[in-house]
Amino acid sequence: MRYIFVLLLTLISIQASTVYPKTLSLAGEWQYHINHEPKAEGYQYKFLEDDPKMTLPNNWYKQGVNHAGIIWFKKELDSKQLSKNARHFLHFKGVDYLCDIWVNDKLVGSHKGYFQTFDFDITDYLNDGKNSIVVKVDSPLENYPQNYSLNKTLLRGIFAHHDTRPGGAWSAKGQDRNSGGIWNDVLVKSYKNHKFSAVKLTPSLRKDAVDLAIKFDLESLESSLFNFSKTVKVSVEPSNFEGKSFVKEFKVKAAKNQQLTFALEEAKLWTTHDRGFPHLYNISFEIADTKHTLQTGFKTLEHNEGEAHFLNGENIYLKGTNYISSQYMSEMDEEALRKDLELMKEAHINTIRVHAHVEPKRFYKLCDEMGFLVWQDYNLQWGYSESKAFEDEAVKQALEMVDLLYNHPSIYIWTMHNEPPWDSSWMKWKYPNYNPEQNKRLDQKLYDVVRAYDSYHLIKKVSSNIEHPWFGWYSKTYQAFTQPSKAQVITEYGAQAIPNFESLKKFVPNKYLKPTYKKAKEHWEYHNFQFKNSKDYGVKFKGSVKQFIKDSQTYQADLIKFATEMLRIQKYDTTTAVFQFMFKEGWPSMNWGIVDYYLEPKLGYEALKEAYAPIIVVAKQTKDNKIKFYVVNDELTAIEDATFHLTLDTHSKVENYSYSVSVNRDSLLKLGTVLRLQNDVKIQLELKDKDGNSLAKNSYNFSPFQVEKKKDK
Predict the structure, then answer these.
(1) What is the pLDDT of residues 286-345, one digit of tens each?
(2) 3 state SS for 145-170
(3) At how many degrees (to 10) do helices 440-453 and 388-405 cross?
């Protein structure tokens, strides 16, 4: 009898220590069926035993299904896998684009949008034993040519229309290879008596402390007529370092929009990898047998017009890139994303612009952990419908984006629209029915609503064309970067380059490797290559594919080096942030990426890495053939008693000069020395510290410009 009693106490102890929610993954094989013909409204497909199977989560194209439209999915669930006496929620982390969900032939809910997480309480739909979950996923095309591509109606950003996706941006093929599917995890989350949701953590800084404003919803799942006050314990514990923890208890009732404040004395701040350590904390909310935990960090980032960005009160110059991890996000697991971010870190990038789409949550978690700031674009790329219904849906999904990513310390800004029609006069050459006022009301509405909803992050209405100086690819030559920047924040510049030969062969058949005839050129263009722009700047096929690749990559590298240096020597004057376009190719293609789809760096990667180094020395040739010299120091320590070495090689003679210099922390130094260029010259620069160690090197080949003589009046 004594042993039975001890066993009973042990079971009670185990049961009492059970923490909810409990999670069951539904990853694995699902049956699927493709809808090839239109069906009546309300139709539900009845699965057959021999219907094929697909491994989920996945974009269906990555599983060999090239389809736009509806695909049905089915999964069997045994109730024995679920906790007893709990409420069960079917939880989706990402479905592209529309979906309806049935449990045991009963419709439990619908959803629109590819990036959001969402769930439905399916408890009352479940049977004892086997249960059937059916998901209808619809990933449609925009109507062509009525809506695609100036009056789009789907909020899919670059996954629907972009010049780096399959087929490019300006043809009917630009919607090929659809990204639809249940691309992220599907889970059943079981809750006992309580459910936390809508958690938002907003830090404000004061000397040696963080004041944390906390908002959340607490839902009671108990069958009770009374809503008594209960104790919620909030714990703040270091996640990626050893340090001080904080615990506080609050009395709350189950309700929406709970608001608490928590003073955290001596809390550590999050910062970028080049400025220090990205301290992170695990924030836990506990009530009875329920615990909800999330990871966050504490920072502030402000931007004063005419000045710099201020991270935790200190200037920071943003060295960024544009990023699309993949056209098919299911293939970007944590390991794949980490590889991309490691390459960025090695290239001294501290900020990432997520270009006109939303990445998986795991991307932002890695940015938090690795110390990257994130400029987050919304899903608007070029032109969209002017209807009220579209505007309402755009506002709804914009707020859902804010809710999804709010607590990531890496996020610092929301931008509502990339190159909208009202800011893109170049569209008059693309569209006969171009309206210079299109989407102006939409963007103002989005800006106003998001700004009112989120006062913590920076908000930007558009990424404007004035911030996209495409010198050397769409206009002028890249020497135009010597002129003062027209925008403080430059969010796009660059040029295309062909991937390395081994990468190119993986997606270009042998018969198309030489783009000398129509079908071969069409294949290259389908994979995003722009022959005309390349040719306009002197890069064209001359008989050898390898030489074509070399010329193409060399041009991209030269442009990136030159443009980045010219923008950086305007530091904290006419520029405060620069974003090269694009870091990586998100599918097997040949576009603006400095790293190809197979993670092989092009020459442009090394060029950006050198131009983004913390300390650089730069020579600039002016229109009147003067050579000016600069030192850029991004380090948080001053450079004292250094020596600036200058070597001039005119082929007939070599001259060496040395100058003593000191450079303040995080600053730009313009040297007083100016040379007059009269002949071709090779210039070598080197900065050495007081102990003779090299801090930075650079070299240039300059030729005099032809200067027009002023006419004698």
Answers:
(1) 999 999 999 999 999 998 876 679 999 999 999 999 999 999 999 999 999 999 999 999
(2) CCCCCCCECCCCHHHCCCCCCCCCCC
(3) 30
Q: Considering only CA atoms, which of 416, 339, 392, 491 is closest in space to residue 153? A: 392
Helices (H), 587-665: 603-611
CB 619 within 8 Å of CB 627? yes
Report which of 667, 674, 577, 574 is spatially closest to residue 622, judged by C-alpha positions.
674
d(CA 290, CA 190): 10
For 39, counting Cβ atoms within 10 Å of its Cβ (0-12 exposed, 13-18 middle, 19+ buried), the class is exposed
**d(Cα 503, Cα 600) in Å, to the nearest integer?**
8
Structure token digits, residue 586: 């998100």
Q: Residue 597 burial (CB < 10 Å; 0-12/13-18/19+)?
A: buried
Q: Is 383 exposed, middle or buried (0-12, 13-18, 19+ CB in 10 A)?
A: buried
CB 316 within 8 Å of CB 578: no
For every residue of 41-78, which 3-state class applies, written as one string? CCCCCCCCCCCCEEEECCCHHHHCCCCCEEEEEEEEEE
**Which position has the token pair 């991209």?**
556
pTM over 0.90: yes
Residue in this structure with the two tokens 């924040």, named with its chain if needed: 489
Residues in a beta bridge with 509? none
**What domains, with CATH codes, occur in the chain?**
2-190 (2.60.120.260), 193-301 (2.60.40.10), 303-495+563-611 (3.20.20.80), 615-702 (2.60.40.10)
Per-residue confidence at 265, pLDDT binned at 50, 70, 90? very high
Angle between helices 545-568 and 603-611 in degrees, nearest 10: 10
HEC per residue, 668-699: EEEEEEEEECCCCEEEEEEEECCCCCEEEEEE
